[in-house]
Specification:
Blueprint (H helix, E strand, L loop, with lengths): L4 E10 L2 E11 L4 E6 L5 H8 L7 E6 L2 E2 L5 H6 L2 E4 L11 H13 L11 H13 L15 H13 L5 E5 L7 H17 L3 E5 L3 H7 L2 E6 L2 E6 L1 H4 L3 H8 L3
Parallel strand pairs: 3-8, 3-9, 6-7, 7-8
Antiparallel strand pairs: 1-2, 1-4, 4-5, 9-10
Helix pairs in contact: 3-4, 3-5, 5-6
The structure holds adenosine-5'-diphosphate (ADP) and magnesium ion (MG).
Length: about 250
Amino acid sequence: MTALLEAAGLTKFFGAVRAAEELSVRVDEGEMVGIVGSNGSGKTTFLNLATGYLAPDRGRILLAGRDTAGLSPRLITRLGVARSFQIPQLYLGLTVLENMLLSLAARSGRGGVWAPLYRAPWTDEGRQILERFGLEAYASRSVGELPEGGRKLLDIALAIALRPRLLLMDEPTAGVSTEDKFEVMDTLVGVLRQGRITTIFVEHDMDVVHRYSRRVLVFDQGLVIADGEPVTVLADADVRKAVLGHA
Ligand SMILES: Nc1ncnc2c1ncn2[C@@H]1O[C@H](COP(=O)(O)OP(=O)(O)O)[C@@H](O)[C@H]1O
Ligand SMILES: [Mg+2]
């Protein structure tokens, strides 16, 4: 079977800093893969390489068998890869629904400041997506009124609106309080499973990784030092030292 994402020999240096070296990662359709690693271990760089925000020094990335070398982030999104960010990329001055409509407009290729936003099919679909994320009550409120967990969910809902085959999430629960973290994850993982969307998510919280992924990759100084089931991988002393700084 062709992998949905296949990175081979992916290498990226920033000056003397090794952000990725000889990364080879294969992710199949339907997987939900966690990525852990200490600060600066290359997690976000990997997502940037996979989405075309950065070009590798060496190596290649195949999406469903197609080489993405030289493609812009926009084209890679068209090929079915969407992402959310460590810090949500939202239009704070607009309402929750308007943010959603902009995402739907982008998907249709008919976005832009001149385009009418409130088209009936989009508002219907947009409201439906917001409902799946439990955000419908906020539809007409400005994004600034959303609690942090709600902002993270909206950012992911905007990515889902692009109907991706592969979703990459950078720390979906960063900034969300410990009490709300699992609720946010339950909501979003529920939507992802229902849509059968292949997902890779960066997460620093081991409990979250344990609970929501069957496979975890461990990054350390630009290398993948472990790849396997969370129960096994996260119990390993070398992994714990690399990720947490102690065994
Ligand atoms: N655009 C950039 N310019 C220079 N250095 C960068 C850039 N992006 C990342 N780095 C460096 O590459 C290393 C890996 O960064 P990053 O992938 O953001 O780590 P993580 O997401 O695991 O915290 C770090 O040392 C970081 O400072
Ligand atoms: Mg990061």
